[in-house]
Amino acid sequence: MFAYYFKLGVRSLRRNRFLTALMVLTLAVGVAASVSTLTILHMMSGDPIPDKSSRLLVPQFDNGPLQDYTPGVDPGDMQMSYIDASNLLKSGQGERRTVVYGVAAPLEPARKDLPALNTTGMGVTRDFFAMFNVPLMHGQAWSEADDARGADVMVLGRAMAEKLFGNSNPIGQRLRMMGAPFTVVGVADKWNPRPRYYKLVGGDTFGDADDFYIPFATAIRHEADLNGGISCSSKRDPGFASLLASECTWLQFWFETSSADRSELQSWLDGYTGEQRKLGRFKRNAPNKLYDVMEWMEKLKIVGNDSKLSVWLAFGFLALCLVNTIGLLLAKFSARAAEIGVRRALGASRREIFRQFLVETAVVGLAGGVLGLVLSFGALALLGMQGSSTAALARMDWQMLGMTFVLSVAAALLAGLLPTWRACQVTPAIQLKSQ
After folding, report:
1. Using an 8 Å Cβ cutoff, are 368 and 28 in contact?
2. Pick from 46, 23, 26, 36: which is nearest to 313 by CA?
3. Does the pLDDT at position 394 exceed 60?
4. MacB-like periplasmic core domain: from which residue to which, for each copy (predicted)?
5. DSSP secondary structure code for residue 285 in this structure
6. How many other CB atoms are there within 10 angstroms of residue 90's CB atom?
7. How many whole angstroms separate alpha carbon 234 and alpha carbon 219?
8. In 3D, which of 117, 74, 70, 120 has the Cα closest to residue 100?
9. Which residue has the higher pLDDT, 47 or 4?
10. Distance (Å, rounded) from C-alpha 427 to C-alpha 431?
């Protein structure tokens, strides 16, 4: 009977076409508004690296002074000093380790027809590429020896490589940066996770891909300009050397461990902070913490309250559309009272009438879903025109694609419950006498 009722539902779309079109459009607009905003929220809050997000860990220390300190208050700063970053790199803890140092530097192309470019990149260790699943289009990451001696080597981002060298392989080419010739050893393929979870503090959360990657030791040796935030709880002397020796926090650190090693790493960090306190550091005696990727994004409130409020407002608009759809369905089903009376007189039960009209309502919801999907793509396209960062979020995956139809049909069925119930209450005798 479902197939028969479905055919009746498709045919009913051609009855009173203006009323049907109005219902489908009302439902589609509500679905498009809610799905487009929900898609943005979904892309912002989704797990950016689901295969290992629980194994990538950020340590947090509180190395601030005792002055103006209130015990139990979260320091909020998720970066660390050069002293701690260096110690953690040498610790051998975890399967892999990396520092993330945001760098800004002018880059001089080998081509004479191109001027010097203002570029931004990262000072990292070679483990960075394996830890965050960075794909390499050409070449490879630098060696451990390059890390240790701070070699003048770099991995270019794909966009920058194509800008400088077109489609040719640039491995072995030299580019001048920070007053030194850097040798290109690799080219990263398209990789720009949104949000940029590996460098959220002091960085552009939904910004463009990095132009280059160089060894962390190289960035330190060249005293590279910092592209990011820095927090100093006490005064320090001017100069890069004093920055390295200070308690200023400006570097991000990541560990990669196995799932079972998190508690072991936490114990080691507790021991490390204990040793540093004996040296006169970590005077606040605050507990250190570990955050995996999703915990860190939650702590830093990557998805703000304004984004969540937008979704609630969009679903409020969908509820308003449903109220209008209920009124239109009541009008449509009321006009078929005579038909319902005849069917009831011929032996159809109220349950069968309810099923028939509910299936017809689902057909309306399906039509609204198709139109809503088209409108959703249009809305996301308009949002994407606001900038490259928004464009990366304004895209619909298969999960949201399926949800569009589910939401549309569910909304139509919800709106159709009252009109369908009213249709079941038609008294056959009264309708037959009125004919």
Report:
1. yes
2. 36
3. no
4. 20-223
5. -
6. 9
7. 24
8. 120
9. 47
10. 7
pLDDT in the model for residue 67: 79
Question: What's residue 431's pLDDT?
Answer: 45
pLDDT for the residue 397: 64
Give tens-digit pLDDT for 86-138: 999 999 899 999 999 999 999 988 777 788 899 999 999 999 999 999 999 99
Residue 145 burial by Cβ neighbours in a 10 Å radius (0-12, 13-18, 19+): exposed
At 417 the pLDDT is 72
Q: Using the CB atoms, write b or e for 146-160: b if 16+ within 10 Å.
A: bbeebbbbbbbbbeb
How far, CA to CA in Å, does 64 sit from each of 45, 144, 234, 244, 281? 31, 33, 8, 16, 9
Q: At 283, phi and psi to the nearest 5?
A: -70, -20
Structure tokens at 132: 């965050």
CB 136 within 8 A of CB 187: yes
Kindly state the tokens that stand for 311: 């979704």
Going from the C-alpha of 433 to that of each of 186, 338, 343, 423, the distances in angstroms are: 86, 10, 14, 18
Taking residue 15's Cβ as centre, other Cβ atoms within 10 Å add up to 11
Strand 117-124 and strand 212-215: pairing?
parallel
- Asked if pLDDT for residue 12 goes beyond 70, the answer is no
pLDDT, greater one: 339 or 326: 326
At 101 the three-state DSSP class reads strand
Q: Are 215 and 142 in contact (CB under 8 A)?
A: yes
Residue type, 17: R
Say how far apart CA 207 and CA 196 lie, in whole Å. Answer: 8
Using CB atoms within 10 Å of the CB of residue 31, give its burial: 0 to 12 exposed, 13 to 18 middle, 19+ buried: buried
* Domain boundaries of the chain, sorted by first residue: 2-47+304-433, 62-287
Q: Which residue has the higher pLDDT, 36 or 72?
A: 36
